[in-house]
# Entry
Amino acid sequence: MSLDNAPMTVFGDSISGNCLKIRFTADLLGIAHEWVEVSVLKKETRTAEFLALNPAGQVPVVRLADGSLLAQSNAIILHLAEGSSLIPADAYDRALMYQWLFWEQYSHEPAIAVLRFQRLYLKKPDSEIDSALVGKCEKMLALMESHLAARAYFVGAQLSLADIALVAYTRFAHDAKLDLMRWPRVRQWVGRIEDDLGIMHAAPDI
Ligand SMILES: N[C@@H](CCC(=O)N[C@@H](CS)C(=O)NCC(=O)O)C(=O)O
# Structure
């Protein structure tokens, strides 16, 4: 797709859950976009050209139809999903969705995404992995398991941005050597959300 036809350009790295959140949300909502691959591993987020898009030097960042730029994955999906069923209409449910989005960024992503990165991409052996980080990941998954005891989705009775944000890295738990068999409701939920999004199951056994 040429830039002239693209209402939105996503600058993202396909190995990043934060970036994939944007693809999942845009595809689900039928929002046309061009994807420009920016490799974190090749330090393409450090070039002057990229820093002009996002001075924080991080993907994802999107260029919207009017040329304005927006960074931070959860801010981007909130903007894309404005007015859709992915954002609960009820004010309290909406606040609950924000609760999970903030938790995802402050607690979940810094644990599971970091462990995944260290194991899968930096290829750190177990001896170099901080056991506290592993414990933190397990705590996140246990909390999710407990929340999912009585519900199929994180907020209300249908898919919301909370599920999209949280599934982004949870579906890659196996890359971090976290076995979701230990958290069966989380495992089932991952498969459910992947099906709702119409995407491949990331784990071979889900
Ligand atoms: N809170 C940010 C995190 C973005 C982030 O950490 N991006 C990583 C890839 S997942 C990145 O660009 N890292 C490159 C770097 O920091 O140099 C978001 O949700 O968008």
